TrEMBL record:
Organism: Nonomuraea africana
Domain Tr-type G, first and last residues per copy: 63-161
Protein name listed in UniProt: Chromosome partitioning protein
Gene3D superfamilies per the UniProt record, alphabetical: P-loop containing nucleotide triphosphate hydrolases
Top-level taxon: Bacteria
SUPFAM superfamilies per record: P-loop containing nucleoside triphosphate hydrolases
Domain called AAA: residue spans: 3-54
Pfam families on file: AAA_31, GTP_EFTU
Amino acid sequence: MPRTIAVVNQKGGVGKTTTCINLGIVTVVAGGKALVIDADPQKSATDAAALLKKGKHGLPCDFTTESGHEALRNLHRIRNYDRKYVDTPGSLENEGRVQAVLSNSDLVIIPFDLDGGALKPTIRTARLAQEMGVPFAILMTKVDPHATRGPKLVLEAREVFDEQGLPYFKVFTRNYTCYSDCVKNNTIITEWRDGSARTAVEELHRVHAAVELKLSRLPIVERVGR
């Protein structure tokens, strides 16, 4: 069953593009067919995809750029993919564009950078998804890879989200330089070879599995856009 997953936070720099592209890659590695859609006027995903396509292995998932509201309202009409991941703007000024994406989404992933002052925008994004009746979960990103600091911040964030009654994934991704290094070197993360890449890919597979589990527990809703 084709599913659309929006990657949304009303704050930039929290890892939306990294999450979106790499989930598309991991979906293909896991045997699915994926489309990544760049709905952000800043075109960060488009720039990253262009670099990755130049590499030896190319970009295994398909990619497109869609910025018009009408096209975004019709994402549900794209049927020939198992998963569609949509990268979205990171500002309130583009809320209409975000709402157009949400109206077509089966699930919203809300990346949350623990060190980036993203708590309030993350909660606002979650409330917007709630108001629109779209299932969502917060994904903690850019977690400090050092053993002492990272886990402490994760636990503190979970306590806040529990108090707010907001669902979150128990898995998370760490702030490894391999995410940016592989793009700069025209290599997808699953083919990048450095000390942290293997761990990063393992984390991405865990995130993908958590997303798939959440999707499997959701009712099938025919999104018609609006």
